[in-house]
User: Fold these one by one.
Assistant:
Number 1:
Amino acid sequence: MPFKSFCKNLMNAFIRWLRALSRPSKETNLDLLRHRGETLAAFTIRTATRHDVPKIAALHVATWNETYYGSNSPTYHIREYQWRQLFEQEDGSWFVLVIEKPDGELVGFARGARYMHADLPAYKGELNKMYLLREYQRLGLGRRLMAQVAAQFKAIGINNMVLFGTPQNPSCRFYEVMGGRRLYARNGEFHGGYGFSDLSKIIAYGC
């Protein structure tokens, strides 16, 4: 690996560590959950419909800002337009799952899609987006959501998947716990991509 690539990987790892420190702990989020009178068993993971677009767009903006604070975030109107455009193309090549509270509020979402790329021909599915509000992280909801994504892929005959994030995202650790294998560029740099060769393992871990 070139020295420049090694240094870049090291710097990204340091940024991931710093950002992880700013996230609330499991204990903090459990206390918030109890304070609100909520239970994890009451959360539902379901397939989204076009009627969910306004809520998904608002959640997308909020979770993006929490994840990539300091970066230029698309506005609510842009996100709503993007999601409405997606739901106009209901061709079976993608799906969206949401985590819903009993009162109808959404706290997380994930989008899966068929994947075809010459550089990674072995992979047939892509976890295109996955976001969860910070105050609901580290409680097992992300694990459940990812397991549902894997199950949805399996149901349409797709047994593996990739995801592409950013190398500074502290969620990288979560993807590795879920069985993701880092995908490195030819120069040895890690750009935030992961490959999951066996979705059955994700499903089993998310139960």
Note: The two ends are 38 Å apart (CA to CA).
Number 2:
Amino acid sequence: MESHSKNTEEALSLARSSGAGVAGVADLSLIRGLPTFGGVLLNHYRYAISIGVPLPNMAVEGITIEDPGILYAHAYHSANAMIDSITLKLSGWIIGNGYSALVIPASLRVDLLNNLGHASHKAFACAAGVGWIGRNGLLVNPVYGPRLRLGTVLTDMPLKPGKPLKNQCGSCRLCVESCPSGALKYSEFETYPSTREEIFDHQKCAARLDKFKHMFAQRTYQSAYAAPICGICIKVCPIGRSRPRT
């Protein structure tokens, strides 16, 4: 177990020194039934290293119902690029120590119809104890709230996993009531909702996200930042709006 702790300390230290605001380790036995796509097979690995890069608060505060804003779009793109850099560095370190590693891209949809990536970063982060699944269906960290972008590295390196956090949203319904597309549904659950559909209508959300992606794409001076973003449910969450100084 000493090697597990040492490996974990070194891996998380590397992630944080490379720019991750939060990082943790998930025991994949907790989420063996998690759906995966694009050829990713969880049974090849024992653990997942979950990292989160915080989004600038002022960029999030600039989001409006009519326009997420170019500063939020830039932060979204930049955070994804940073995550992919950190997870690639982590995987290289793991492989250099004689173990297997697979990077799950920060933001890459492989099932466009159902708006799904290779696997749920939120599920890995929740299993790692990085945060809990909120009423908005996003990972909510105790410090940053949902104002994070997430990345994952799967590995067979011996690590010491964290423990999942129960939902701490209480009776708050701000995200559900503020969603412009009406995609969120209030539901009581401790750790995970039984299905995504229990709390979230992905088709309603996707229609709004794609609308803004096309809006940015049509603005030639902003087309490089075209992305399926909205951010209202992130902005209204009270957790993470003010962060303690260190």
Note: The chain has a mean pLDDT of 92.
Number 3:
Amino acid sequence: FSEAKEDGDKVKVSATFPAMGAAPAALNLTFSFNDQDEIKQIDQEIIPQARPEPSDTIPEAARGLINAALANNTPMTVSYVDESGMPNMSLRGSTQVYSPTQLSIWVRNKEGGMVKAIQNNPNMGLLYRDSNSRSTLVIKGKGHIEMDKEICDRVWDMIQDVEQKHETRETGCALIIDVVSMQGGTPKGGVRVQREA
């Protein structure tokens, strides 16, 4: 908070916020007084963070959050539509940024429900939320399964040791998600990715 500043018959105080995903940039409080010098009104002005510039690639701030999600105890929540048309959600600790426009996930069972579902309906949603830093990323994308050895090797090598200890290298496969949109806030500023579906 700033020092109190007199402005005519009012007193103003300003505050700035530490870097947090969903916090405003600043706050102004203006105090008005009655004839007995008692506070009669407090006006609050919230100054939002600057709107993020649109991008067609995943920004570095989002990359860092996604790649460190599991280590930060905030694994990504992934949603897809199964073969019966019902929505499904699960936590995927192997989620990583694969390229400037793609995410990857190591799917432990290449014969499992997610693999079958994505072949029929590639639309997916992902959510990152860290309440401690008030960081949120909401992602929409289109997924496809990769069995190519080179791609699978790369995705496997990217995931953390705790995921590799499940020993699913032979039973699993790589899921690549083409990001269509990503929105949210991080301690380093807002995120607004928009690409053609």
Note: The radius of gyration is 23 Å.
